[in-house]
Amino acid sequence: MTGVHSLSSAGLAVPRYLAWACLFFAVMIIGWSPFSGGARLPTLLLAIVGCWWLLTMLPALSKQRAVRRWTSVFLLLWLPMWLSLLHAFSTPATLAAIGWFSLMYLAGLVLVVLLQQPLYRNLLVRGLSWIVAVWLLDSGIQYLLGTDLLGIAKTPEGRITGMFTDLHQGILMLAVLPAIFYYLQARHAWLAWGILLGAGVVVTLSGARGYLYIYGLILLLGLWRRRPDWKAWLIALSLPLLVATFSSLLNPQLAKSKLEATQSLTANNQSWFDRANHALSYRLNLWETGLHMWQAEPVTGIGSNNYKRAYKQYASRVEDPFVMNPTHSHNIYVEWLAETGIVGGLGLVAIIGLCVRWFRQAGPACQQQAWPYALPLLVIYFPLNTTQPMLVPWWFPVLMLLACAFVASLERGSHDTAA
């Protein structure tokens, strides 16, 4: 039957149109992010397909090693969320998070099956390449004309946000940048380097210093994997500096404000805490309050989806700017430990250990396939980082996409064959 594909070694018979639709939904996890609902809609559509597969093809799915691995990763996050109900600051909020997160398993089920096929992985990255290219072009128009293609203006201080009304474009672009670079480098090396440099300039013009830090980590870890000579190391180490310098010339006002914040570290009339706190845009307040939450409930935490809700109760500093306007912790580990305690922390460490083990057990060819997805995950989960926490509806689907692509790439996917 020409309208049916046999996906993966377990021989899952899937209509061709459904496989293509799921691939489109996967691309839209990134592509629809600037618009209403963000990644929620494509993730929900993938979850609906995953639910149907689970009900109709459970025996075949259970035979797949990649599915079992994805199930292990999910359970190590999901079960601590259930246990966090024991001392939840707001039980309804935690139950809502558990219900929403349950859909992630179903959506990931589809991704981990689909992306075992090299054809679909390549098409996924090709689609992401077009999206990032459009974002870069749109951001350039916004810089030159003041507004982008959708009429969105850059911020009063000159930040470039592209099609977004917030700063999400930079982190989303960085999450898929390694996969795009490795894909294009084998086909159009000049285009791969152009997108790499363009993304560096755009994320720097967003004014988020953490994005430039992540960009530098991606370059260093990517270079470490190749183990080149000292000249390549010198280029990689100087690239973030060159990008930052070029970006400061494009927007001197924004560069000046960021430099002034960093220079606060040398102020003599403040304590070291206050200096570092100001330089880090008051991140230390967020992390200290998260520590107080963890200390209050060290084993199971204060409940998933409760960091912002409980912030005022656990904040201890009089001039904390986030008491009246709570935000997320800007660190994966701080918020995860605060909400799910030691149980959640051990689960996250177990996931990292399993992923390292699976990667080492794979053959060189599979490692090479999986590395473009492992690299951004390594950087995002690097402890000394100020990224978004995991359980955010617009962000976790992106992490799920990377994790499922990583797990799927470790399998030797067969070529599509008619069932």
- Oligomeric assembly: single chain
Global shape: globular
User: Which sequence of strands runs across the widest sheet?
Assistant: 2-1-3
User: Helix count?
Assistant: 17
Derived structural class: mainly alpha
Number of strands: 3
Task: Report how far the terminal alpha carbons are from each other.
Answer: 6 Å
Strand content: under 5%
The radius of gyration is 22 Å
Helix proportion range: 55-70%
Number of domains: 1
Largest sheet: 3 strands, antiparallel
Protein name: O-antigen ligase
Domain O-antigen ligase-related: 196-348
Transmembrane segments: 17-35, 41-61, 73-89, 95-115, 127-147, 167-184, 191-224, 230-250, 336-359, 392-410
Main location: membrane
Short précis:
The protein is mostly helical and 419 residues long. Helix content is 68%, strand content 2%.
How would the blueprint of this fold be written?
Layout lengths: L3 E4 L4 E4 H16 L8 H17 L1 H5 L2 H19 L7 H24 L3 H28 L22 H18 L3 H17 L3 H18 L3 H21 L1 H12 L8 H8 L3 H14 L10 H8 L17 H30 L2 H17 L15 H14 L7 E2 L1
Antiparallel strand pairs: 1-2, 1-3
Helix pairs in contact: 1-2, 1-6, 2-5, 4-5, 4-15, 5-17, 6-7, 6-8, 7-8, 7-9, 7-16, 8-10, 9-10, 9-16, 10-11, 13-14, 13-15, 16-17
